[in-house]
Amino acid sequence: MLTEAIREEGIDTLWDELVERRDSLHAAGELEERRRRNLLGEVVSAATARVRASIEQIIVEDPQVAELVAAVQRREVDPLTAVDRIVSTVIGERSR
Predict the structure, then answer these.
(1) How far apart are CA 70 and CA 86, in angstroms?
(2) CA atoms of 49 and 84, how far apart (whole Å)
(3) Domain assignment present for 55
(4) Are 1 and 43 within one domain?
(5) Domain enclosing residue 69, as ranges
């Protein structure tokens, strides 16, 4: 859909199309579903960021976890074993 703001061409048509699309999504229940999905995504993103920050902090502050990461780097411990231990440490500290 072509519009040009300076000459105010196509703006009303665009607006009408947007309103029609929103109303169509709302009538089909899709608008609310999209909102729910978006909010879930926001919650997951925020939670993921906090958990990541906690993990990074533990790696820096906890000598045992730092050594575990170093052992992975030396290929003495496989990464998934380290992940299990680190996640257990993070969850364990949060549940205390």
Answers:
(1) 13
(2) 18
(3) no
(4) yes
(5) 62-96
Q: 9 — phi, psi (to 5°)?
A: -100, 130
Overall pTM surpassing 0.90 (yes/no): no
Whether 5 has a pLDDT exceeding 80, the answer reads yes
Give the residue among 55, 46, 61 at the shortest CA–CA distance from 82.
55
pLDDT per residue over 22-40, tens digit each? Answer: 999 999 989 899 999 999 9
In a shared domain, residues 42 and 6: yes
- β-bridge mates for residue 4, sequence order: 9
Count the domains in the chain: 2
What is the C-alpha separation between 66 and 35, in angstroms, rounded?
Answer: 40
Q: Are residues 9 and 41 in the same domain?
A: yes
Which ranges in 1-96 belong to alpha helices (H)? 11-27, 30-61, 63-73, 79-95
* Burial group, residue 68, by CB count within 10 angstroms (0-12, 13-18, 19+): buried
CB atoms within 10 A of CB 53: 10
